[in-house]
Amino acid sequence: MLSVDEAFEKVLSGFTQIGCESVALSDGLGRVLAEDVTARLTQPPKDVSAMDGYAVRGSDVLDVPVTLTRIGESQAGSGFDGTVSAGETVRIFTGAPLPAGADTIIIQEVTEADGDQVVIKETAPTGDFVRPAGLDFRAGEVLLTAGKVLSARDIGLCAAMNVPWLTVRRKPRVAILATGDEVVMPGDPLGPDQIVSSNSLALAAYVDVMGGVPVNLGIARDTMDSLRETLAGAKGADLLVTIGGASVGDYDLVQKVMGEEGLDLNFYKVAMRPGKPLIFGRLGDIPVLGLPGNPVSVGVTSALFLQAAMDVMLGIERSAGALETAKLGRDLPKNGPRQDYMRARLVTGDDGELTALPFDGQDSSMMARFAEADCLVIRAPHADPAARGERVGILRMHGGRSGF
Predict the structure, then answer these.
(1) Helix 307-314 × helix 4-13 angle, to 10°
(2) Pair 209, 202: CB distance under 8 Å
């Protein structure tokens, strides 16, 4: 049985970056850049005012009060074409270009106007309230780099850079195959021994927030013919993810059917809890992740291995640094032979530090607790008992790209 680290290495080496496409800037939110984005203009393009007031020569307001003659007005989009000479000023508004000859802005609150005569009542240092050209960025400057997941702020930045189109990674198409005679879709009639399928819908949501396109193939019955027929729908996908049918029971047929279809099995079983019966291999040109059937096992293995696969395909650099840590909120016994991912709630203590409180119930069928969890507390195989207050590694389960 592989360790989690060994399984990670095999999964990461089983994927490559996928191709690119161009999208309109308005469709760029959440997409992953495939190329650097370079500013197409300088911002601001020239010196502009940071306040409403009067553009002056700094040397004219060294001694105040002083009366200057207003010779014009400068607005954003409509600047003043003349030159400010000694004893002159121009009414100016926020974002408007600074007139030639002026080098300082006097805010309107410290002035008093009477017709074209303006009394300056307070002095200001030369350059005050002037935003120089290029204060934000300059044409040709690379401001966003390949591998960046675009946020709403990034979209705004691209617009300011005058970039209307983006080159991004194509969204990976992830085919999802659920199995089992015992599962039905939400809302369908339930037989006496059937259960509602939450896994396929949850997994589709995981794929979506990870930057992919879920392709739901439906639920295959526990027959070889049904599995073969449903598997045919995965043609053209970048990844096939199966749910259930990966254990060793009499009706667990996924390995058998895919084996007959040419599955090149890389590994089966990982020393982790939950998620031990995990399959990774390749069916022709399509990588295959076979996830366990329990809902929490699907979530945990998705957070670990599906996320890793998606990051490689999308060209997102994975951090090689140390895990985030938190204080442990209660005592834990010695761990068993598998790496444990305990569902836990995060709270902030009076000292401002995060504390992880693992739930009492850790059964891999408890979806309500999984939905409530803020993080997974990670415990190494055979870890010694851990006392409250010790630091433990955690994997956050909400926010950012994980969207769990």
Answers:
(1) 30
(2) no
Structural domains of the chain, ranges and CATH numbers in brackets: 4-17+171-314 (3.40.980.10), 20-42+142-169 (3.90.105.10), 48-131 (2.170.190.11), 324-396 (2.40.340.10)
Q: Answer for the pair 366, 300: CB distance below 8 angstroms, yes or no.
A: no
What is the residue whose two structure tokens read 């650099």? Answer: 317
Separation of alpha carbons 148 and 30, rounded Å: 9
Contact between residue 289 and residue 212 where contact means Cβ atoms under 8 Å apart: no
Averaged over 183-209, what is the pLDDT? 83
User: What is the average pLDDT across 271-280?
Assistant: 94
Cα separation, 378 vs 375, in Å, equals 9
Q: Which contiguous run of DSSP H or E holds residue 156? A: helix 152-160
Residues paired with residue 31 on neighbouring β-strands, in sequence order: none
Alpha-carbon gap, residue 57 to 88, rounded angstroms:
8
The pLDDT tens digits of the residues spanning 315-362 come to: 998 876 668 999 999 999 999 999 999 999 999 977 889 999 999 989
Q: Residue 370 corresponds to which tokens in the numbers above?
A: 């999984």
290, β-bridge pairs: 242, 279
Average pLDDT value for the chain: 92
Alpha-helical (H) ranges within 174-244 are 199-209, 224-231
Beta strands in 245-306 (DSSP E): 263-268, 272-273, 279-283, 286-291
Partnered with residue 241 across adjacent β-strands are 176, 289
Inform me whether the pLDDT recorded for 399 exceeds 70: no
**Which amino acid, residue 218?**
G
Q: Are 320 and 8 in contact (CB under 8 A)?
A: no
Distance CA(265)–CA(126), nearest Å, equals 72
pTM of the model: 0.87
